[in-house]
Amino acid sequence: MTTTSIDPAHIAAAREARAWPFEEARRLIARLDKLPDTGSRVGKDKTVIFETGYGPSGLPHIGTFGEVARTAMVRHAFEVLTEGKRKTRLICFSDDMDGLRKVPDNVPNKEMMTANLDKPLSAIPDPFDNEHSSYAAHNNAMLRSFLDRFGFEYEFFSATDCYRSGQMDATLIRMLEVYDKVMDILLPTFGEERRKTYSPFLPVCARTGKVLQVPMVERNAKAGTIVYLDPETGKKVETKVTGGAVKCQWKADWAMRWTALGIDYEMAGKDLIDSVTLSSKICKALGGTPPEGFNYELFLDENGQKISKSKGNGLTIDQWLTYASPQSLSLYMFQKPKAAKRLHFDVIPRAVDEYLQLVGGYERQEPRQQLDNAAWHIHSGSPPKAELPISFALLLNLVAASNAEDKAVLWGFIRRHVPDATPQAHPVLDHLVGYAVSYYRDFIRPKKVFRPADEVEVAALQALSDALAKVPPGTSAEDLQTVIYDVGRAIPRYQDPAAKGATPERPGVSIAWFNAIYQVLLGEEKGPRFGSFVALYGIEETRALIGRALAGKLAA
């Protein structure tokens, strides 16, 4: 997902585009218009900087990816609205100088990690394989690997490098100069005990290497130093606030980063609304302008709990990509960012099919409609051609009915529906076939529950088999669906007089008919349009499937 050349037709249409990345881009433009035109760091010539933050105390998860993906979408919308006339950057910032306060549940070598509590994440050995210089370096490498995998155009920043290189020094000195203002902003938000010990500066102890949470005894803004009491020896220690000798507390650090790097846009989770408000006040006290951004809703696991890096209760990038395309994940991130959503395996199939529908319809849309199509944002204005005659849901049911865990077997069925289709000529479809096999193996097969047909269902399914026997080869999916409807409407249990278009002579068909088909033949509560399934699976194969069900072999 990189910035691309801009279609002139889209520039004109962007003025009225309603998709949320354009709304965000317009708010950012309004912010920039208010900045004083006094140099390259502010005003009309300023390079516009987008930022995402990552705390490497735990492994990166899909929520981390979502923040980068969404920010990249806003960045591209901004470039279109400004006709590419303003330079932009996307910084992915890792807060890897933070002290480790607790050992995550999903890491090995917990004894070693426990022995290094309170040290900067970048100073703790790699607990995984010792291939990286530190625990933070391992997690940072994972972050960069999956960002590269998705083709994001970004710059990686390490808090450790920024502090130690002096990049933050000027703002840290300014933080010391306005120390009292910063404390006035933050102290009212703490309890009485916390107020006694709080300081925006966390010294990195030269003796132990730990990031200390201790109060300041003295401050010298002119010298750029602070004095604290060593919690173990009780002795006074004077240290500079520059060069990586201290790390700022979270809210102060966020504001310091915005100011030092000149950040213009950063979004955050809904749980950080109060932090955004306080950090914005501190940013202003430092002489900076808080960035634009919005608060997105949090992702929830299958139990409705917030996903957490330390708990590891959310999907990983690799897990999603085992069962679906990267683009389907990007679509999931695009949809309703301000609504809480379950992020679990069962959301994957729908995301795949919705993505394919959006891409398939893109070229038939007017420019204005294209800009409201998620596919435009996922592919930075250049969606591929991907019209597929077979949905992912249908592939899943085909795998389920055929018990085919070999892609070659599935392709044999597909060629009945699309005679000229090959993996080489249809690579997108080939990927879908592989995803369908993996998803069926891990999630559908273990949960399939076939039930035996009752007396009415036995007669109905036998009638369906007999009707299909009279259908000539090559009958379309639509005509097969009509056959299935006709069988159902002849059976009193499945008649629905209230159905749309129903008449006394030609009653409608209730959903109970299709529920029976799915439960008895496929072991599922829901399924695809059954006429499409029969066309793909084969008429004789479907009749054989019915035969096995009526013989009790599927339920057994």
Description:
By secondary structure, this protein is mainly α. Among the domains are: 8-185 and 250-296, 3-Layer(aba) Sandwich (Rossmann fold), CATH 3.40.50; 392-447; 455-550, Arc Repressor Mutant, subunit A (Orthogonal Bundle), CATH 1.10.10. The protein is 47% helix and 9% strand. The protein contains 24 helices and 14 strands. It has helices at residues 8-14, 20-34, 62-81, 110-115, 135-149, 159-165, 169-177, 179-186, 192-197, 250-261, 273-285, 317-323, 326-334, 348-362, 367-371, 374-378, 392-402, 407-417, 427-444, 455-469, 477-489, 511-522, 530-537, 539-550; strands at residues 48-54, 88-94, 155-158, 201-203, 216-220, 225-229, 236-240, 246-248, 268-269, 295-296, 299-300, 341-342, 495-496, 508-509. The strands form six sheets. Strands 1-2-3 form a three-stranded parallel beta sheet. A three-stranded antiparallel beta sheet has the order 5-6-7, with no helix packed on it. The chain has a two-stranded antiparallel sheet with strand order 4-8. Helix 2 crosses helix 3, helix 20 runs antiparallel to helix 24 (539-550) and helix 21 (477-489) packs across helix 23 (530-537). The two termini are 49 Å apart.
